[in-house]
Write a structure and sequence with these properties.
17% strand; Arc Repressor Mutant, subunit A; 214 residues; alpha+beta
Length: 214
Amino acid sequence: MTTCCRIVLTFINIDNIIFIDMKTNDEGNKQEQKSRADLVLHPDRLQIIGVLTGKKLTPGQIAQRLSGISQAGLYRHLKRLEEGGIIEVVETHQVRGTLEKVYTCTSPDKAHFSEEDVRGMSPEMQHNLFTAFMGTLYSQFLRVQRVARKTPDVLGKMGYQSLPVDIKPEEFPRFQRDLAALFEQYSNTDADSASERYYLSLTLFPEVSNEYES
């Protein structure tokens, strides 16, 4: 009899800032990991990282995309992310006597946590990681919902569903590679102005039986 491993695959094309890949990661120690987690695991900062990945935006342009963050809060988060090396200033302009900065996120991998990172986390930190991820998803959903009141067609561009997928253990590495190749195909940091940005979230949970919980 062929053995399959059942997993539940949930696609939510709203947001995915933290993507836990299945590659090992040798860098860093627990203290560095905790400092990075403390910096990244905030719903507002996760959203800022998302809009700046592959984009060059001023604080004003970021604010247009993230209207739920106050102006003071936005500048505070930008400063922390810049000091932490997650984002950087790529241009500056003089605007009415004020120096305007243009930010981008050139190293989104710094905001990602690998399987090895997660294994080294305490249960509490793992819980905080997932809670921040879900909080960001919910914030994205609320923004789309607000826009949909005036532009109902935007709902046709959003969707979410959970699907059971049966995969043989020996096929799982190929499944991961296929997913990575698909993401790479549509992750274009040089997308032109005709492109529309979407956020694809992926959660992957193995089906576990009650015997493991006892």
